[in-house]
Write a structure and sequence with these properties.
This protein is an alpha/beta fold. Helices cover about 40% and strands about 15% of the residues. The chain contains 15 helices and 12 strands. It starts with 10 loop residues before the first helix and ends with a helix.
């Protein structure tokens, strides 16, 4: 069986986890949390970043930091995971779904301005498949209308936009280190604070609304309740897993890119023949090999291909049901025709297996099966 996804774990991750437990520092902000911050600072030049319990809670923290209020509107793509929208629905803000570009599946930046109203407060953009959105255009629109921009870079750590790292392209960047991502800690994420003015409050929000982190830094001798917040701080044991993963950063990246490139090169004859469409990466982006999508001519062909692959021990997935036409989206008053490109591509896209420990034989088996199906 070739699974859809599988985390790559070695003796290094095991050694760091055991060390974290033997340090008797099982809660957050311990030795390995600090080590992760240093690793991220050295590799990406990110100064202010806080680990969180998930990519979801990183997004929730951003909603609190921009003071989202009931009735505020947030422009967001429909082709994303529910976490992106739940983060501000919990603040009783309203999602305004933006259709996607047919090439990258990212929010169509040319449609954003038409969706802005006096109630619009923020744009939550998603770097789908590790390919950054066209952030210069989005940031310019936000500046013009006085809006916040949150970059949901859950899938995009290690990707670049015009030479700049994903997660650093707006006021807030949010990463995920979930088991399905390139670099993992089981369940976990991080919020990047690209403007220093947000750091002090973010630390308080992450620590249940208290200034506990200031006590740990030695800035004060007691901590008290200062703001709203929650328990957004992950265990140092989980940070130990991530630290080992970041030590293996280049190895993991190279292995994922080898699989991605094999798909892209060896399935090209099928695209040339009109059987499917391959992934598209715009000139401004450098991706991280997070996922490989193909687009099939019809939903029926996709369904048959999924079944065909499964019969041969290969797991492939359809990705997302568009949020605007999902049951919750419909309850919020949205209709399928609101985002026609999203609806069309959401019915035809298929995500092939891709993980760091896929062997060349695994990759060849997937490619051979897809070719066999179209024969």
């Amino acid at each position: 069986m070739i699974p859809f996804n599988k985390a790559t774990i070695t003796d290094l991750e095991e050694r760091y986890v055991i060390d974290a437990m033997r340090n008797s520092k099982l809660s957050g902000d311990g030795k390995y949390t600090m080590r992760v911050y240093e690793q991220i600072r050295e590799r990406f030049g990110i100064k202010d970043i806080l680990l969180t319990t998930s990519g979801t809670t990183a997004l929730e923290m951003s909603a609190i930091l921009i003071n989202l209020d009931p009735g505020d509107e947030v422009i967001v793509p429909s082709f994303t995971f529910s976490s992106t929208v739940n983060a501000f629905l919990l603040r009783r803000a309203k999602p305004v779904f933006c259709d996607i570009r047919p090439d990258t599946f990212n929010m169509d930046e040319n449609l954003i301005e038409s969706l802005i109203t006096p109630n619009t407060k923020a744009i939550y953009c998603v770097d789908y498949a590790g390919i950054p959105c066209d952030m210069d255009v989005i940031n310019a629109i936000a500046d013009k209308h006085g809006l916040f921009v949150i970059e949901d870079a859950a899938q995009a750590i290690g990707s670049k936009y015009k030479g700049r790292w994903a997660g650093t392209l707006s006021e807030f960047g949010c990463f995920s280190f979930h088991e399905t991502k390139n670099y993992v800690m089981g369940e976990g994420g991080a919020i990047v604070l690209n403007e220093e003015k947000y750091l002090d409050r973010a630390e308080i929000i992450r620590e249940k609304g208290t200034n506990r982190r200031q006590v740990l830094k030695g800035w004060t001798d007691k901590y008290t309740w200062h703001d709203i917040g929650s328990s957004f701080l992950p265990s140092d044991v989980l940070a130990a897993i991530l630290s080992a993963q970041l030590d293996r950063y280049d190895e993991i990246m190279d292995k994922r890119m080898r699989v991605w490139n094999a798909y892209h090169e060896q399935l090209k004859p099928l695209e040339d023949r009109g059987d499917l469409r391959l992934a598209i990466v715009p000139d401004y982006a450098e991706h991280n090999g997070h996922m490989y999508n193909i687009v099939l001519p019809t939903d029926d062909i996709r369904t048959h291909l999924v079944d065909f692959l499964k019969e041969r021990g290969i797991m492939a997935y359809i990705c997302y049901v568009p949020l605007h036409s999902a049951p919750m989206g419909r309850r919020l008053g949205n209709k399928a025709e609101d985002c026609p490109v999203t609806e069309d591509l959401g019915n035809r896209v298929l995500r092939l297996p891709l993980y760091a420990d896929m062997t060349e034989a695994d990759t060849d088996k997937v490619i051979a099966a897809v070719n066999e199906f179209f024969r």
